[in-house]
Amino acid sequence: MIRSSGFVFARLRRLCAWLAMAVAASLAMPALAQANSADFVRGLWPEAQAQGVSRQAFEAAFAGYSPIPQVIELTRKQPEFTQTVQQYVDKRVTAAQAAKGQAMRGEWAQTLAGAAQRYGVQPEIVLAIWGMETNFGGFMGGNNTIHALATLTQNGYRADFFRKELLTALRIVSDGHIAPQQMVGSWAGAMGHTQFMPSSFMRYAVDYNGDGRKDIWNSVPDALGSTANYLNAHGWRPGETWGYEVKLPAGFNFAAARELGKAPLSQWQQLGISRVSGRPFPRPGDVARLYMPAGATGPAFLLLPNFDVIKRYNNSDSYALAVGHLADRIIGGGGFATPWPAGDYALSKAQRAEVQTLLARAGYDVGPADGVIGPKTRAAVIAWQSRAGLPADGHVSGLLLERLKR
C-alpha cells in the first residue's frame, strides 16, 4: 500500500516526539533517583545521630552514594535452592581447599593457638569457616557495605532488618574501626574475612592484635579471633567435635530412630549404630541426632551440639556439614566412608508437588500438592516406602520421584 507524503511526515513527527520524550525521561530518571537518594540520606541522619554516629563519618560514608543496580537485581534473582547436600559439600570441600587450609594452619599457627586457648574453639573449625566464607580471604565481596545496605533499605527490601544493619555499619565507621571506602562485603552486607553482618560485628568482633581497632577486613588475627569468639558465645563445647560419620545395621529401625530424636550416643549404639572408623565413641553420654542427608543409602551422621553452634553462623545443615567435613580434612581426615547414592538430584518446588500428586494418586493422604514437604507428605512417603519394600527413611529426593513414576 502506498502512503501519502503527508501521512508519512505526520508519523515521523509523532515518532520523533515519542523519542524525544523517551530520551527526556531516561535523562530524568537518574536525577529523580539522585533526588530520592538525597531525601533518603537526609531522613536517615537523625537516627544515625541518635546512635552516636558523627556527622563527619556519616558524610564520608555516603559520599557519592546512589543505589547499586546489581544489588537491587540480586534481590529479584535469588534462585530456589536446588542442590543436593552432596553437590553442596563436594563443591566446597575439595583436596585443594583442604590443602590450602593446612597451609593457612601453618601460617597462622600462633594466632589460632592463642584463639583456641582464649575461646576454646579448635583451629580447624575457625579455618574451615574462613575457607567456606571467603576462600581464606581470597574474595570478601566487592560491594561498599554501607552503599549496599542503603540500597536495600531505600528500596524496601526487608527494610527494617537492613535499616538496623545500615545504622550499625555507620556506627562501626564512626567508631574508627574501618574507613568507609574500605568497608567492603557481600551485596547483603556480610563483611570481612569471615563475613560478619554489622550487628554480629558489634557483638562479637574482637581487637585480637591489640591495635585499638576491630579490623576483620585487613587483620587476619582480628578476623580469626572474632570468629572463635562468635562460636564460643553461641555455646561451643571445647574439645568436642561436630559429629561422627556412622554406619547403620542391616534392617535398621527407622521408626525407632525417628521416635528417639535426640538421645545419648549410648542409646544410638543400642539401635546398632557404630562409627565407620570402628573406634568407640569417646563420650557415650553426649547427646546426638541422626542425620541422613541422602537417605538410607548415603552417608549417615550422628550430630553433636557443636554442629548446631556452627549453624548459628549459617542456619543450614548443608553448610554445617561442609564446615565440619572441611575441618576434618584440614587435620588429615579423608572423604566420607559411605559413597553418595548415584543419580540423585534435588527437587524443585514443582517436582516436590509432583511427588505429592503421585502419592495422592496411589491412595496416600498428603494434603494439598503445594510442593511443601510437611508431616503428612513425610508420613505418606514412609508408608509408600514400606509397601514397596524400601528402607522407610522418609527421604524425599530425585530418586524417590523416579521410583514413583515407574
What does this structure look like?
By secondary structure, the chain is mainly alpha-helical. Among the domains are: 243-330, Lysozyme (Orthogonal Bundle), CATH 1.10.530.10; 349-405, no CATH class. Helices cover 54% and strands 6% of the residues. The chain has 18 helices and seven strands. The protein has helices at residues 5-50, 55-61, 69-76, 85-92, 95-107, 109-119, 123-134, 145-154, 159-174, 198-204, 220-233, 254-260, 265-270, 305-311, 317-330, 349-361, 375-387, 398-405; strands at 143-144, 184-185, 243-247, 262-264, 274-275, 287-291, 300-303. The strands form two sheets. The protein has a five-stranded antiparallel β-sheet. A two-stranded antiparallel sheet has the order 1-2. The N and C termini lie far apart (60 Å).
Contiguous helical run count: 18
> Per CATH, what is the topology of the domain at 243-330?
Lysozyme
* Net shape: globular
- What is the residue-mean pLDDT, rounded to a whole number? 92
Q: Largest beta sheet: what is the strand line-up?
A: 4-6-7-3-5
- Unreliable segments of 5+ consecutive residues: 1-12, 14-33
Q: What is the CATH class designation of the domain at 243-330?
A: Mainly Alpha
Q: Give the DSSP E fraction (strand runs of 2 or more residues).
A: 5-15%
- Please count the beta strands (DSSP E, at least 2 residues each): 7
Helix content: 40-55%
First-to-last CA distance: 60 Å
Oligomer: single chain
